[in-house]
Every structure is written in structure tokens, then in C-alpha cells.
């Protein structure tokens, strides 16, 4: 407990210099159809802005997500190599990942959903929506969704960022001993014209690995463009590529995968347009395509090659009336896989949205709607939901929301054939129903949320076997998974005189999962869910200096627990900023997934140059 006390005391004198609470309240939640300001939304949503991200002691998207409330980020390797994301006790396949509202989750396996070529400097904000969200985002948003919103270009600029880090410890390896290190660089440029804007980023991270066969090489290329046709019409396009190569020792099937290796390449592209026909009618069509190649060598003689593609077409619209706004949408998603051990498979998903939102009831904001879905493999489903908020006064609000959702099994769930895992083509989709009640408070300095939720998942899918020597794990619909949870979060901009700015963000989540099944199977993933989660992030700035500390405590259902504390200090010159991070300050030994120990104390220094045309 002594080290925890030291960490908390360090906060006393220290999210700052960025968007203040008022600006966050004015952010429009990116839900494709209806335009809902953050302070009028009745869901459990957390937003982290670009400036807040810049202040965090984090080097990549995975590390930022790990600091968000209710998010369980389980890394199999540091520096963004590979990670699973889940929300409020769900599995890594039950969280939907989106980029500017377009689905980028991987139909092969949720293990690749975060294989995203988005550098931190291209992100405007991240929106985390918790709870069953089919009405808003369609299928596979079973326990929630993470929507990454990229920046809108406001000026011409050039930037370069170089960084390197080490634990100053020898690698745990029989051959080629040496100091464990990582290094990276990121180059970016943007061009702003009144009628069109462009941004381009390239980044590369490389590590020699902390243990035997865990070296990694990660390269990303990201481009986004936008054109204003006139005041009511605009066109936007995006293209990105990531190459992710890493030693996969103990990543999926320890101890047999000691010499495993994996290379994942992903290409994602989208084109969308926005059309405001008049004051009432708005339409936005979009097409997107995600292509993924996954080469996995369990041993040099047991190699799997997977090629999958997901093409999506969407049409979203909004019609405003005197008594409220109507939202309508259509989508089709065509998924294909060609695999050496799963075979060739294809399925299509077609859905339609309808929503209505009104503020014309006294002190009440109401949003109600449904998503109708047809899947060529599983047929028809309907997923309704509603959000209701009642204003007690200008600052306090009581909210109630309920909704349903579905997760379609991945191709891995259905068809994989490996020495350690066997799919099940008879799997049925998971269905979830969730209700939440909460109390919200907001003024010019504080945003706070405290709520209770109940969620039930039918046909819960897990990987199981019936005794330790029973052979490979197999995917099964095990039964009913129920979670009751408490969640709290507060964002506080501390009032101080002078130029010192201090911001505090704190949260606590408690999950009580129960499982009802007639099976006595041994689960691969269920005991890894979080039970207690707490975080405390404080950042401060004054003149050219800024500093932040991020603390988090995780305890899993298995009773495994760990406390992590990360620090960053930075100094900003006119065109150059220098920063230094210390992560896992107390050198805690911990696991986030499987049998993979994460790095101990780690130090990083970086230098960033940015020129902006005035």
C-alpha cells in the first residue's frame, strides 16, 4: 500500500491546456444519423479529446484505450503489437470498433479489431459508448462500441516525432541477450485550402522484444482528404495501411506456441459525402472496404494463411420537424474469407435503422428506435431500444436507457481448425438485452456520471474443454451470461488562479458476472473478465510545461490484480516539444492476457517538431 500512497500524494501538486469542460459538452456525438450534443445524450458515453490524448503518458492507441472507463484493454504485447478490447465484462468479440462511424471490426477474429493504422496525432477524439447499441450502430455492438474520430484539417502543417525507450534490463532469452528496447518515428503533413484539405501520416515502431520470440515491427500509413463542393455538400475519403509483424510466443496457445510468428496486414478505405438539401433534410452515403491478411505460423511446419474482406455500403439520413428529429438508415455488409484451415466462406448482412428524438416534452429528452437485420446465415432479427433523460434542474439529470443487440460469430468461432482450437459451425448468434439507470451532473467545470446496469446475454459463446487433457478448446453456445454493474466517472477542471491549469479524471467500476449453464466446461476467457476497475488521471500545465500521471487498478474475476502508475513530463518550445515518460513506475509484474508477462518499469524520451502555417 505504501507505493499506492506515494503515487496518490504525487497528484496533489499536479488533462490540461486542452478542451475545457464546456467544449466537451458541445461535441456532437458521431452516431451517423441524429445529431446529439454530448451534454444532451442519455447514454453512458465517455469522450477523450486530442488535447487530452496528447497529455497522457501513452505512445499508441492501445495505451490510450486502456485508460478509458469501463474498457478492458488486454495486451499480448506492448507498443500496440496485439491487443483485445472489451467493455463492461464482455468478450473481445463483443465490442464494435468504428472509424468515423464506419465499422472496422474484423470478421475473422476480434483479436485483429485493433489492427488499426491510425496514429495518435490524426485523432480528434475517441467516443466510448457502453451498453447494447444495435439501434445506433447495428450488429456486433453487443456490449458497446468504440468510435475513433479523425481530425478535421484547419491549417497547413508539417510534423515529425522520434522516440525511443528501454527498461534497461536484459531480455529474458537464452540466445542473443541484450537490453530490451523500442524505437519509433512518425512523420506527418497537412494541407489546408478553403475548398479542399488533406493529411498524410507515416509511422514505424520497432522492438527487439522483452522475451524470446517477441520482437515486433509495426508500420502505418494513413491518408485522409476532404472537399467542400459548396456550403451544403462535401466529400470525404480515407485510405490506410498497416503492416504488423511480431513473434507470438505464448500469444494464443502457450506453451506450445513458443516459436509462433504472425504477420498481419490490413488495408481500410472509405468514401463518404454529406448533403444538406434544406434546413430539414440531410443525407450521407458511405462505402468502405476492409481487407486483412493474417499469416500465423504455430510452428515452422504448421502455417495458417487467412484472407478476409468486408465491403460495406451505407445510407444515413435525418429529417427535422417541429416536434422532433427522425433518423433513417440502410446498410449492407458483405464478408468473405479464404483460409487454409477455415476454408472459403461468405455471408451478407443487411440492416435498416429508424430513430426518433425529441426535446419537446417538458424537462424530457427522448430517443427511441429500432434496427432490423437480415443475415444470410442466421435470418431476420429486430433490435429495439430507447434513451430517456429527465432534467431535475440545469445541472442534474436522471437517465434511463434500455436496448438489445446481437453478435454474429466470427469465422474463427465457426470454422477454425488448429491443434489448440476447433470452431463450431452450429453456433448461434449471441443476443443481449441491457438496461441502465444513471444520475448525471454537468456544469462549466464538472462532468459526472453514476449508474447501475443489468445485462443478459443468451447463447453466450466461449472456448471450452471439459478437462485439462481433453484436447483443443472448442467454441460453444454455453448458456446465459448475466452481468450487474456499478459505474462512476467524474471529470473535474480544478479552479485555480493564474496560468496553472489542472484537470482530474477519476472512475470506478464494479462488475458482478454470473453464468448459468448445464456444462462443467473449462473456459479459456471467462475468468479474465474484470471485477473491480479504478482509474485516476491528473494533468497540469503552466506556460510551456505540462505533466500528467495516470493510475489504474484492475482486479479480475480470477482475483488476479495489479496497480499501474505512468508519468509524463513535457516542455514546449515554439516549434519543438520534448517529453519523457516513465511507465509502470513501481515495476509491477502482471499479465493482461494469457501467459504473457507485460514489461516492468519502462522509460521513453521523445522529440516532436511541428510547423504550422499562420
TrEMBL record:
<comment type="similarity">
    <text>Belongs to the TonB-dependent receptor family.</text>
</comment>
<keyword id="KW-0732">Signal</keyword>
<feature type="signal peptide">
    <location>
        <begin position="1"/>
        <end position="18"/>
    </location>
</feature>
<keyword id="KW-0812">Transmembrane</keyword>
<keyword id="KW-0998">Cell outer membrane</keyword>
<keyword id="KW-0813">Transport</keyword>
<dbReference type="InterPro" id="IPR012910">
    <property type="entry name" value="Plug_dom"/>
</dbReference>
<protein>
    <submittedName>
        <fullName>Iron complex outermembrane receptor protein</fullName>
    </submittedName>
</protein>
<feature type="domain" description="TonB-dependent receptor-like beta-barrel">
    <location>
        <begin position="209"/>
        <end position="585"/>
    </location>
</feature>
<dbReference type="Pfam" id="PF00593">
    <property type="entry name" value="TonB_dep_Rec_b-barrel"/>
</dbReference>
<keyword id="KW-0472">Membrane</keyword>
<keyword id="KW-0675">Receptor</keyword>
<dbReference type="InterPro" id="IPR000531">
    <property type="entry name" value="Beta-barrel_TonB"/>
</dbReference>
<keyword id="KW-1134">Transmembrane beta strand</keyword>
<dbReference type="InterPro" id="IPR039426">
    <property type="entry name" value="TonB-dep_rcpt-like"/>
</dbReference>
<feature type="domain" description="TonB-dependent receptor plug">
    <location>
        <begin position="44"/>
        <end position="145"/>
    </location>
</feature>
<dbReference type="GO" id="GO:0009279">
    <property type="term" value="C:cell outer membrane"/>
</dbReference>
<dbReference type="InterPro" id="IPR036942">
    <property type="entry name" value="Beta-barrel_TonB_sf"/>
</dbReference>
<dbReference type="GO" id="GO:0015344">
    <property type="term" value="F:siderophore uptake transmembrane transporter activity"/>
</dbReference>
<dbReference type="InterPro" id="IPR037066">
    <property type="entry name" value="Plug_dom_sf"/>
</dbReference>
<keyword id="KW-0798">TonB box</keyword>
<dbReference type="Pfam" id="PF07715">
    <property type="entry name" value="Plug"/>
</dbReference>
<dbReference type="GO" id="GO:0044718">
    <property type="term" value="P:siderophore transmembrane transport"/>
</dbReference>
